[in-house]
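Exercise 3.2. Students should predict the tertiary structure of the chain below and write it as structure tokens, then compare their answer with the key that follows.

Predict this chain's 3D structure.
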Amino acid sequence: MIDIQLRSEALDAQTCLDAVASDKAGGHVLFVGTVRDHTQGKKVNKLDFESYEPMAVKEMHKIAERAMDKWPLLGISVHHRVGELEIGEIPVIIAVSSAHRKEAFAACEFVIDELKKTVPIWKKEYFDDGEVWVAAHP
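Answer key:
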């Protein structure tokens, strides 16, 4: 089961966990990315995420399919937020379930790493002295 969402509303970790729940799962791994208050020694005030939605959703789905092919997974949920986010808010959640924890951990790490490399979502960081677009992702 694959659950992919790109949305402007707040994300919820329990929703992602529920999407991958299975009686066959012995392991559920949850990654929650949050907006932190600093980067490279500078104070961050907020972030803004933009995307090319059709391609972003398609690419996230491809990454999930690759993970499902690589490991014996039961489900993957990837939710990413777009829009302006304040410190402490959640821009990305990934949940993975499998019969064994090792595969769930490996797949979750693979998904977030690939998402950061290939999905067309861009991040703008706001500082006291200006703002800058960066390569992407939390």
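Discussion points: The helical segments are 13-20, 53-70, 101-118. The two ends are 25 Å apart (CA to CA).
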